[in-house]
Amino acid sequence: MQIEIRGVEKLSIRERQVVALKEMGWSTDAVAKQLGLSPATVATLYNRARNKGYQVVIVMSGDVLGLGQPEEDEA
């Protein structure tokens, strides 16, 4: 799975890191541990980023969704 963050240019580097991990489902505590920050700082960065406005797009291949190649019509 890949994510695309639209509007990332509005965010600081730390906000980008926090957003990427949070949008992939990481808990605030896990993000804090990974980045060496306190959970309160992670929450502040995430809220600040959300207020700046960004969009997350999840990019998945059909294989991941269990949608293989289309079957050919048998004539």
From TrEMBL:
Q: Which GO terms describe its molecular function?
A: DNA binding; sigma factor activity
Q: Which InterPro entries match?
A: RNA_pol_sigma70_r4_t2, Sig_transdc_resp-reg_C-effctor, Tscrpt_reg_LuxR_C, WH-like_DNA-bd_sf
Any single biological process term in GO: DNA-templated transcription initiation
Taxonomic superkingdom: Bacteria
Annotated HTH luxR-type domain residues = 25-52
Pfam hit, one? Sigma70_r4_2
Q: Which Gene3D superfamilies match?
A: Winged helix-like DNA-binding domain superfamily/Winged helix DNA-binding domain
- The entry's protein name is Sigma-70, region 4
Q: Which organism is it from?
A: Carboxydocella sporoproducens DSM 16521
